């Protein structure tokens, strides 16, 4: 059973769990978890079908061909190279699952997708033993596997094909696999991804789409998980500032590269959002990716983008840099003011929410008595956590008296009142120089 989580209005929750509200101050083992985890649904020609699969930065650099069917430097990997500039771990999902696996007389592709059609099986007589065959799996002219056997039943599957052990081996120069197709990318494919990813923990989700229906689906998803289930992450979409929500980042710029979606900058923004530390900002960060980014905007355009809650890149000399590290929140309230528009603020509150929820659910829930000593222990852990945030200059002016832990309306509930002041990176310089 999933633990409860999210926000609360009154103390009436049924499920055990951590319910945490963040509100703005009125206007007039508690350790910090690591960041750098992203998730994306991807249109792939190769890869694991129908499941979330984990790819670390090291995996991507060393095993790209095995995982995605293309080498690290291949044009089709450009988006993922942008992502992994700043991401440690990716939870990926193949939207094109459900296609057909390519095959021939001797083997079937390990995964569905059109990339399987580029695999060839080469069979030669062994030079030292005429009863034996050298069976090679070839992709783009490179031998990716070679086995010497007497009959097909002795062949073992490799990273690209599963052999048909009932086949009769015969010399062939190169027999290609054929018939491989990608599955259809539609609403059902996106919903399957959302159903699968709901139980995972990550910092940022990115979706490279341009249609309003799909963008609306994902925006509703992030709102539900953040507000109702207490799963804190940010969503990166392309040109969806209408979300007006601090959990959603809207990328303004389009990419100009042939063969790529105009929304492909989402790869890089997802990476920098996931990888940005809790005490840092992406403001003025230099774009170090490979896409040609449209930055043809005037100063007036840039000002309007900030007012509209759009995450925008702009030209600074010969560099392309992030204008403001902001989300789509435009409408503020007494409980959520302007400070929530800044993604650095969101990273801090998400860090607190995720870390304290994990702390409570693993150390206290169902274990520690709800008496004065137990509540003091929880208070001490939260204070220790916040002191670490202050040490790394993510929050400031913190005092242990800012945290109050009391018994709730029932003997099983605990109420925590917490106050933090988020530190933001310097953004504007106002300077007066008096000249004598």
TrEMBL record:
Annotated family: Belongs to the myoviridae tail sheath protein family.
Name of a matching Pfam family: Gp18_domIII_N
Protein name: Phage tail protein
All residue ranges annotated as the Tail sheath protein C-terminal domain in the record: 336-435
All copies of domain Tail sheath protein subtilisin-like, residue ranges: 183-328
Domain Tail sheath protein Gp18-like: 35-95
Domain Phage tail sheath protein-like beta-sandwich residues, every copy: 99-182
Protein origin, superkingdom: Bacteria
């Amino acid at each position: 059973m999933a633990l409860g989580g999210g926000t609360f209005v009154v103390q009436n929750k049924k499920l055990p769990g951590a319910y945490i509200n963040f509100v703005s101050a009125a206007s007039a083992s508690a350790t910090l978890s690591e960041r750098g985890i992203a998730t994306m649904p991807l249109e792939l020609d190769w890869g694991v079908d129908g499941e979330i699969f984990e790819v670390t930065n090291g995996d991507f650099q060393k095993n790209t061909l095995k995982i995605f069917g293309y080498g690290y430097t291949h044009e089709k990997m450009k988006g993922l190279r942008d992502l992994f500039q700043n991401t440690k771990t990716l939870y990926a999902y193949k939207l094109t699952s459900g296609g057909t696996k390519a095959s021939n007389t001797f083997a079937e592709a390990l995964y569905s997708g059109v990339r399987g059609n580029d695999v060839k099986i080469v069979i030669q007589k062994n030079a030292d033993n005429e009863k034996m065959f050298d069976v090679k799996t070839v992709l783009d002219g490179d031998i990716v596997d070679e086995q010497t056997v007497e009959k097909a039943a002795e062949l073992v599957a490799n990273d690209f094909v599963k052999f048909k052990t009932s086949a009769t081996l015969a010399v062939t120069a190169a027999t290609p696999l054929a018939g491989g197709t990608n599955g259809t990318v539609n609403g059902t494919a996106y919903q399957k991804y959302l159903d699968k990813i709901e139980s995972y923990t990550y910092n940022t989700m990115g979706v490279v789409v341009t249609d309003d229906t799909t963008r609306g689906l994902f925006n509703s998803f992030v709102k539900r998980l953040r507000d109702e289930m207490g799963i804190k992450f940010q969503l990166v979409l392309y040109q969806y500032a209408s979300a007006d929500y601090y959990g959603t980042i809207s990328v303004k710029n389009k990419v100009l590269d042939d063969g790529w979606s105009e929304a492909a900058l989402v790869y890089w923004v997802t990476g920098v959002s996931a990888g940005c530390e809790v005490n840092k900002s992406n403001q003025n960060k230099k774009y170090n990716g490979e896409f040609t980014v449209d930055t043809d905007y005037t100063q007036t355009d840039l000002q309007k983008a900030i007012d509209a809650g759009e995450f925008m890149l702009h030209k600074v000399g010969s560099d392309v840099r992030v204008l403001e590290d902001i989300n789509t929140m435009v409408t503020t309230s007494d409980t959520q003011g302007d400070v929530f528009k800044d993604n650095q603020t969101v990273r801090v509150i998400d860090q607190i929410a995720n870390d304290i929820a994990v702390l409570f659910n693993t150390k206290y829930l169902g274990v520690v008595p709800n008496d004065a000593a137990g509540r003091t222990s929880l208070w001490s852990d939260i204070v220790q956590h916040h002191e670490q945030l202050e040490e790394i200059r993510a929050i400031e002016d913190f005092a242990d008296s800012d945290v109050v832990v009391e018994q709730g309306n029932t003997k099983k509930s605990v109420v925590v009142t917490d106050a933090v002041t988020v530190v933001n990176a310097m953004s504007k310089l106002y300077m007066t120089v008096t000249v004598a």
